[in-house]
Design goal:
2 domains, two-stranded parallel ribbon, 11 helices, alpha/beta, Rossmann fold, elongated
Length: about 290
């Protein structure tokens, strides 16, 4: 029996996945085929979503983080005539904070990585929020660090709290930034230095289909996300406590990017979330840990 166009697309996308794995662009443990089987009868649409899944390797992330730091120091160099080493000695770095700070949050890990990749002294990083406040009051330039600036909400909330305490506005530094977060920060006079920009085309809402994905339509992709995301367990997400499904992630940014060390809130939960029924045989593509 001849293969259907749906079967051919799934085989092609799984073949592309294996190529990416062999090239080191996706982890070997990613259960791509099992994830597609989560959606019986809709494998063609799931395959189209798998094709758009972007896994950022640690090496690539480090390059973006280093590029963001270079942008920061280039801007500082234009502002001051003194040696960069002198200016850097009056800067302090600290992670952006969620409503409930935790040492396991990605910002602390990114600060450690920034120190290693850019060869920064340990004393350039604030030990905690109290240390940050004291150093800001002493005149040090504050730089808030995160892996990505999506909507900008975490950066803005941390910056506003710091401004209320010290009267000083910080800068932001991230490996990756979305134009929504950049615009929100700019509106509050907060410069953001980033290594790579999340182009609008990486949003699933504006995705372009490949010829072999037809007759799938973008509307069908969105309908698929709306219906299938209803089974996801998002009850632990601080941005999904009102019972709404949020099939496109935080602020409905609808991104398809994950990092090795974290799964951003603005990435499609269908990639990383658990099934609401713990007894389900549902397989997350890249489970949060």
């Amino acid at each position: 029996m001849a293969e259907t166009s749906e079967e051919m697309l799934c085989e092609r996308v799984l073949g592309e996945h294996e190529i990416l794995v062999k090239a080191g662009l996706r982890p070997t443990a990613l259960p791509a085929e099992a994830w597609i089987r989560n959606f019986p009868g809709q494998e063609r649409v799931a395959a189209a979503l798998l094709r758009r899944f972007v896994y950022v390797s640690e090496l690539e992330f480090e390059k973006w983080l280093e590029a963001a730091f270079v942008r920061l120091m280039s801007a500082v160099d234009r502002e001051h005539s003194e040696p960069l080493a002198t200016t850097l000695a009056r800067m302090v770095f600290f992670p952006t904070q969620k409503e409930t700070p935790s040492v396991t949050a990605s910002g602390f890990g990114v600060c450690r990585l920034l120190r290693q990749v850019c060869g920064l002294a340990e004393d350039r990083f604030a030990a905690d929020a109290d240390d940050l406040q004291q150093r800001a009051l002493a005149g040090e330039r504050v730089v808030l660090v995160d892996d990505c600036v999506g909507s900008g909400s975490q950066l803005l909330s941390t910056a506003e709290e710091l401004q209320a305490q010290t009267g000083r506005l910080p800068s932001g530094l991230a490996a990756l930034a979305h134009h929504d977060g950049i615009a929100a920060a700019r509106h509050h006079s907060i410069p953001v230095y980033f290594g790579a920009h999340i182009e609008e085309l990486t949003s699933i809402k504006r995705t372009k289909l490949a010829p072999d994905e037809h007759p799938t339509t973008r509307a069908e992709l969105l309908q698929f996300l709306d219906s299938e995301s209803a089974v996801l367990d998002l009850r632990r997400e601080e941005w999904a406590t009102d019972g709404v499904s949020y099939p496109y992630g935080f602020r409905e940014l609808g991104q398809t990017i994950v990092f090795r060390h974290s799964k951003p809130d603005w990435t499609l939960p269908l990639y990383w979330a658990e099934h609401i029924d713990a007894a389900s045989e549902w397989t997350p593509l890249d489970k949060r840990t």
